[in-house]
Amino acid sequence: ELKVEQNPLFLSMQEGKNYTIYCNYSTTSDRLYWYRQDPGKSLESLFVLLSNGAVKQEGRLMASLDTKARLSTLHITAAVHDLSATYFCAVVSITNKLIFGTGTLLAVQP
Amino acid sequence: NAGVMQNPRHLVRRRGQEARLRCSPMKGHSHVYWYRQLPEEGLKFMVYLQKENIIDESGMPKERFSAEFPKEGPSILRIQQVVRGDSAAYFCASSPFVFGQGGPGANVLTFGAGSRLTVL
């Protein structure tokens, strides 16, 4: 059974600092997604990573995928308050279901 | 394109009542997925449906929960005799193809805004 783990579960950052969220998964998959969720809202798709070595960047966020290590990272550069949200990674299972990680609650402090 | 529409957005039920949650997929999408999010947790897969067929219900509780996606109309997630532990946000997502198979469009899974169920 595919398991997806994120760390840290909670991250308090100061504005302007850099940090990385990690997403590990237990079985082979070559497709990984990053989503953002604001409190009480739905999920906003951030990145779709479809192959080993894939790297995508949007603004202050950059995501990468290493399928051999079963690891994806979401790197935050020079954090701003607007990035405060919960971030989920999700991996596609062999039965084509999207399996979500536990989420990382990011709080960016002024 | 109105996106994935879910209603009601908020639903309050007393223990023992029934809850019906509706999901209208995006236009042209015939594949629907339901997920449940308990407070402070990630989303858990419940069921995957195509028109008139349940394809994968491996995440559905064995009792009290059912889902359908009729030929006409929205997909319905039905919870009978609700209990407090059913309180959660229920999200629907849709896809134009079998998710993950086919071309670039198959990698799209669009989520609705969710229905938040509170059981008193």
Structure notes:
- The complex is a heterodimer of chains A (110) and B (120).
- Chain A has strands spanning 4-7, 10-14, 19-25, 32-37, 43-49, 55-58, 61-66, 71-76, 85-92, 98-100, 104-109.
- By secondary structure, chain A is mainly β.
- In chain A, the strands form two sheets. In chain A, strands 2, 4, 5, 9, 10 and 11 form a six-stranded mixed sheet that branches. A five-stranded antiparallel sheet of chain A has the order 1-3-8-7-6, with no helix packed on it.
- In chain A, β6 (55-58) and β7 (61-66) form a beta hairpin.
- Chain B has 120 residues and is an all-beta fold.
- In chain B, strands 2, 4, 5, 6, 9, 10 and 11 form a seven-stranded mixed sheet that branches. Chain B has a four-stranded antiparallel sheet with strand order 1-3-8-7, with no helix packed on it.
- The mean pLDDT of chain B is 90.
- Classes of the chains: A mainly beta (110), B mainly beta (120).
- At the A-B interface, β5, β9 and β10 of A face β5 and β10 of B.
Shape of chain B: globular
Overall mean pLDDT of chain A? 92
How far apart the termini of chain B lie comes to 36 Å
Helicity level of chain B, as a percent range? under 10%
The main sheet of chain A comes to:
6 strands, mixed
Helix content of chain A: under 10%
Q: How many strands of chain A? A: 11
Uncertain residue segments of chain B: none
Taking the alpha carbons of the first and last residues of chain A, their distance comes to 41 Å
* N-to-C series of helices and strands of chain A: EEEEEEEEEEE
Strand content of chain B: over 45%
Number of helices of chain B: 0
User: Largest interface, counted with CB-CB under 8 A?
Assistant: A-B, 21 and 25 residues
Biggest β-sheet of chain B: count, sense, barrel? 7 strands, mixed
Radius of gyration of chain A: 13 Å
Q: Which residue ranges of chain A are poorly predicted, with pLDDT under 50 across at least 5 consecutive positions?
A: none
